[in-house]
Amino acid sequence: MRRTAVRLLLAALVALAACLVGPGPAAQAAVPASPAVTYTNPIAEKRADPHIFKHTDGYYYFTATVPEYDRIVLRRATTIQGLSTAPETTIWTKHASGVMGAHIWAPEIHFIDGKWYVYFAAGATNDVWAIRMYVLEGTGANPLTAAWTEKGQIRTQWESFSLDATTFVVNGVRYLSWAQRDPSVNNNTDIYLAKMANPWTITGTPVMLSRPTYSWETVGYKVNEGPAVIQRGGKVFMSYSASATDSNYCLGLLSASASADLLNTANWTKSSTPVFTSNAATGQYGPGHNSFTVSEDGKSDVLVYHDRNYKDISGDPLNDPNRRTRVQKLYWKADGTPDFGIPVADGVTPQRLSSYNFPTRFVRHWEYRARIDANVSPLADSQFRTVPGLSGNGTVSLESANFPGYYLRHDNFEVRVVRNDGTARFAADASFFRRAGLSDSAGVSYEASNYPGRYLRHWEYLLYVQSPGTATDRADATFYAE
Question: What is the location of CATH 2.80.10.50 in the chain?
């Protein structure tokens, strides 16, 4: 009763203030700049080291390592999801003898100065572990039908094991980053960076950006490899993969100011902990060798990576063909750094729900109680999969991303994240009709399936199902999917 009285008093004060200052536009949160995008994983079975490039022609181009390690393949589609069923074209096949004759790994496709380029690694028929980096050049609007020529090996400071070349531009300068073994060090590979004279030639002295030294980088093998770059807010972020390619495989992160000298190692900061790791709850193991792309509307960054859906591997992981290409939305923290979250469960990817009237706060679970909070950590506490309603009849249910099998469920009109017990009562309490937002039709509101007229809403930051009788109530019951 006391909380109700306080709330009524505040409403009266707001109304009095409105009378004193005269009418004005209704308060309304802006529609999020990065609305929700969802995909269904996996995108491609038996495709590792994935690279997805969105071109100006409206197509996404997808290439990856095939488990036979003998060719380079491409797919294209107008949507990311469409890549899962797009026909695949082989654009190049390994040599029958000599260099580029074995272990065809980790292709990436780029469009530079009007031509297509594919970067890849390969061994030789007489030494399959003589892994080096090579480049193909393609002419033609469509790389699936382009004429491809071999530009040869990318020469570096050493003639040693090298792979995973990627290229990017910062402030008009094109760079190449890659992984290579320093012959003088008992490591597998470190991450290097150099400027480029042209798309197949580096120039100047390469610098080492990262060496595997942390415990999570040295499980099985001392490995830093697979660099991938994304830029935002005047910062350059480089993710990379570490440790053996089994369930210990994970992502680390380097960052630098875009205005700094990127060839000065001191200008790069390295995360002391991995940013993306195996997750037993969601059944995803060894996530790594990622790339970045953007959503179809250009408003969301999308993380592309491979993993396996089981932990234990028989024999050498290199001989296990079951790494799958997967995608999920990449989020950003308030401090401007990327938040990778967790590798989400197979199936539809989750979303976040921001509050209409508290736009920096998101629906999340905390000790199983549902509430809205800002700066949610871990991110997955605020991610929910929208799935067909447990009670059917056109409803939806909201499943926790990091507690699969747990759903937003009301009990005595309080909302918690609870494990599905299989009962009809649970199904009804965890099912909602998805409606246009009560305060903004661009948003969404959730009406309880078994209590018509009662909606999911926040009150003093906690979630309930209640009947919204006022404008404030309707605002509290309106959310945006992000």
Answer: 350-481
What's the first-to-final CA gap in the chain, in angstroms? 35
Question: Which of 194, 199, 204, 117 lies closest to 162, judged by CA?
Answer: 194
Q: How much of the chain is helix, strand and coil, in % rounded to 5?
A: 10, 50, 40
CATH 3.40.640.10 assigned to domain 350-481? The reply is no
Task: Give the pLDDT confidence of 38-63 residue by residue, as tens digits.
Answer: 999 999 999 999 999 999 999 999 99
CB distance 193 to 180 below 8 Å: no
User: pLDDT per residue over 434-446, tens digit each?
Assistant: 999 999 999 999 9
pLDDT > 70 in the chain, percent? 94
Structure tokens at 238: 């480089």
DSSP assignment of 362-396 equals: EEEEETTEEEEEES-SSGGGG-EEEEE-TT-TT-E
Strand bridging mode 396-400 / 444-448:
unpaired
Pick the CATH number of 40-346 from 2.160.10.10, 1.10.287.180, 2.115.10.20, 3.30.230.10: 2.115.10.20
On the question of a cis peptide bond just before residue 317, with omega within 30 degrees of 0, the verdict is no
The residues of the chain that CATH labels 2.115.10.20 are: 40-346
Going by C-beta distance under 8 Å and a sequence separation of 6 or more, which residues neighbour residue 20?
Answer: none
Average pLDDT rounded to a whole number, residues 66-84: 98
Name the region of 113 (left: φ>0; alpha: ψ -120 to 50; beta: rest): left
pTM for the complete prediction?
A: 0.93
Contact 249, 201 (CB under 8 A): no
What's 240's DSSP letter?
E
Is residue 297 annotated as a catalytic residue, yes or no? no
Mean pLDDT of 162-191: 96
Contact 135, 113 (CB under 8 A): no
**Active-site position among 190, 225, 381, 482:** 225
Per-residue pLDDT, 28: 54
Is residue 190 part of the annotated active site? The answer reads no
Could you give the 3-state DSSP secondary structure of residue 292?
Answer: strand
